[in-house]
Design goal:
The chain is 16% helix and 33% strand. It is built from four helices and 19 strands.
């Protein structure tokens, strides 16, 4: 890995030097297209290097086995069903991190809980610890659906953004683990003052139970007795597109589409919200109340263009665009800091034909019914 990283670094430095000299020294003639191609290679190599540095790893085979039992998409029994989605992600300073997102199948695009799970060895046994994001209501909108493409989990999240909420000590062996919280934890949910959690992991099945207790110790919510909520694997039908450059990803949700994909020159109307990785919404069309309208083929952000060559009425999509394919080092009018990765949610409202051009009517000139240039009138020349 060290030799590979060194080779990438040397290539980047070399290409950057050539590009810089081409811009500064008039005797070095590099065609504009070639210079643009070199700059593109530099950006892609840098993005690939950053992506490689953020690849998550397991610290032990046992933790990898436990993670394999948790990772994936799950759905509970009953109606409405609860959707549980878990992915292995990279978070600096947090080993064996897994991003967990929970929603109902009736409102699958709006998760109601987001947590980060970690695995450590404590007292010779594996311990699962849950964290919430240090955000209002624990919500980190920029991470929504990052479980479907773990490589785009927000890179700005670190230990300072996390609040520990629960610990569960696990016991078992490969393929089956059980555990429960060692003691109740404070809570204010549903009239409870403390809560406990219990977990049972097996191949193709997850069971867990959260129970809340009132001031007198009476259970006020959660499954009774030994009953637990069971989850089995489930496919949400998302379509994930990775067109090539590292970090450039779109997630398209299953919706009813109308018409055909937009063609070059056609007018697209859509609603959108743009997020920074820290969860801040830096731009939204909803403030104006009018959809954003543009012509397919316009020179928008390079990442936007690469991901949206198939827009269709009814399409709902989340896009992750790396800084190199967004506003790069320049940023945007104080709203987007330099070198910021961006996240966009879009909903296509309309696709319309190109606006018609104003017509031109050629009227015949009086005395010239055939049209065209009028006849030249000249006085006869006196031969004298």
């Amino acid at each position: 890995m060290r030799n590979g990283s060194l080779a990438v670094g040397v290539l980047i430095v070399g290409l950057a030097a050539v590009a810089a000299r081409a811009q500064q020294e008039p005797d070095i003639q590099v065609p504009p297209k070639a210079l643009e191609a070199m700059q593109k290679v530099i950006a892609e190599r840098l993005a690939a290097k950053n992506a490689a540095a953020r690849t998550p790893e397991w610290t032990s085979p046992e933790f990898e086995g436990i993670g394999r039992l948790l990772i994936g998409s799950w759905k509970s029994e009953g109606s409405p069903g609860v959707l549980l989605n878990v992915a292995h992600v990279f978070v600096p300073g947090v080993p064996n991190a897994m991003y967990c997102e929970i929603a109902t199948d009736e409102n699958s695009r709006q998760p109601y809980r987001q947590t980060l799970l970690t695995l450590r060895t404590v007292g010779g046994k594996p311990r699962l610890t849950t964290f919430e994001f240090r955000r209002p209501k624990g919500a980190l909108g920029s991470a929504n659906f990052a479980w479907a493409a773990p490589e785009v989990f927000p890179s700005v999240i670190g230990t300072d953004d996390l609040v520990a909420t629960m610990m569960i000590d696990l016991s078992g062996s490969a393929g089956h683990y059980t555990g429960r919280s060692p003691h109740p934890y404070p809570t204010s949910l549903g009239g409870a003052v403390e809560m406990s959690s219990e977990l049972d992991l097996a191949e193709g099945r997850i069971q867990f139970a959260d129970r809340g207790f009132g001031p007198d110790g009476t259970q006020v919510w959660g499954p009774k007795g030994a009953t637990m909520t069971a989850f089995t694997r489930h496919d949400l039908g998302l379509r994930v597109n990775r067109p090539g450059p590292p970090g450039l990803v779109s997630i398209t949700f299953p919706t009813t589409l109308q018409g055909e994909p937009a063609k070059p020159g056609e007018q697209i109307s859509l609603n959108y919200v743009g997020y920074l990785e820290d969860g801040k919404a830096f731009d939204t069309i909803y403030q104006s109340g009018t959809p954003f309208k543009y012509t397919q083929g316009w020179p928008l952000l390079p990442g936007w263009v690469q991901l949206n060559n198939d827009l269709q009425v009814g399409m709902v999509r989340r896009m992750f665009i790396p800084a190199t394919l967004a506003y790069a080092a320049e940023g945007r009018r104080g709203q987007v800091p330099p070198n910021s990765n961006l996240i966009y949610d879009i909903e296509v409202m309309a696709v319309e034909p190109p606006p018609s051009q104003p017509g031109f009517e050629i009227k015949p000139v009086e005395g010239n019914p055939g049209g065209g240039p009028p006849p030249v009138k000249a006085q006869p020349v006196d031969p004298k």
